[in-house]
Write a structure and sequence with these properties.
Blueprint (H helix, E strand, L loop, with lengths): L20 H5 L4 E6 L4 E3 L7 E7 L2 E6 L5 E7 L24 E4 L3 E7 H7 L3 H21 L8 H16 L1 E2 L4 E5 L3 H7 L4 H13 L3 E3 L3 E5 H9 L2
Antiparallel strand pairs: 1-7, 2-6, 3-7, 4-5, 4-6, 8-9, 9-11, 10-11
């Protein structure tokens, strides 16, 4: 049930705030979920019953080729929807299915809201504007920045993944570095559709060039030295 949706003055992008838009306007239909790394959030061809909004962590969209190989086709970052199939056929209230698997690449926190509650929420002009804008930005990010293994070599994919993470979840430090907290070399390998040894080799080369500094459970990125590299991706 939507709480005071039409009587609430919506200012700013409440999807970026805590609590987010859904938590504030649909508290009775919204559930906060914490999932460990590797947990499947939804599967391919699964009927859409809820819409998910990512608060913390990184989610990958996984598709399986005909020969059984898994390919990560997109990265979902905080303040983005985990899949947008829930918005398809919304106005005629017809069923929809997910076209890929969503899997937690890192530990994640997200909210889950009943699809029917979002239908009602979309009747509010301000809420609808925020949601549509978020969908458009997500589609743009997926289409322009996702690490497509069919189009790029592994080194470019790793550079692209680090660039996406830096823009999406990086925390700027006062000393000219961006910190990717909680991100490991194994995580980068998964996101870039490559092996851990290959990812480690490329990341170590980047560290020798002064682009990054690798720690046990986080990576620091040099803003100055990495700027030209990421601009060319």
């Amino acid at each position: 049930m939507v709480t005071n949706a039409r009587n609430t003055s919506i200012k700013g992008n409440l999807l970026n705030e805590k609590p987010c838009l859904f938590q504030r306007l649909c508290p009775n239909d919204t559930v906060i979920i914490k999932a460990p790394k590797g947990r499947t959030i939804f599967s391919r061809d699964q009927n859409v019953k809820t819409i998910h909004h990512l608060h913390e962590g990184v989610v990958g969209v996984i598709n399986t080729t005909k020969d059984g190989h898994e390919i990560l086709t997109a990265l979902i970052l905080p303040n983005q929807f985990i899949g947008i199939a829930g918005f398809v056929r919304m106005y005629d209230e017809r069923p929809s299915i997910h076209l890929g698997e969503a899997r937690a690449i890192t530990p994640v926190t997200y909210c889950s809201i009943k699809r029917e509650a979002v239908w009602e929420l979309m009747e509010d002009r301000s809420a609808r504007s925020i949601i549509v804008d978020s969908i458009c930005r997500m589609v743009y990010n997926i289409s322009s920045m996702s690490p497509n293994p069919l189009k790029h070599d592994v080194e470019t994919r790793i550079h692209r993944v680090i660039s996406i993470l830096a823009r999406g979840i990086g925390e700027s430090k006062n000393d000219g570095w961006i910190n990717l907290s909680g991100i490991t070399q194994a995580d980068i390998a998964t996101m870039a559709n490559t092996t851990r040894p290959t990812a480690s080799r490329i990341l170590n080369e980047m560290q020798k060039d002064g682009l990054i500094v690798i720690h046990r459970r986080n990576i620091d990125i040099s803003i100055v030295k990495s700027k030209s590299l990421f601009e060319n991706i």
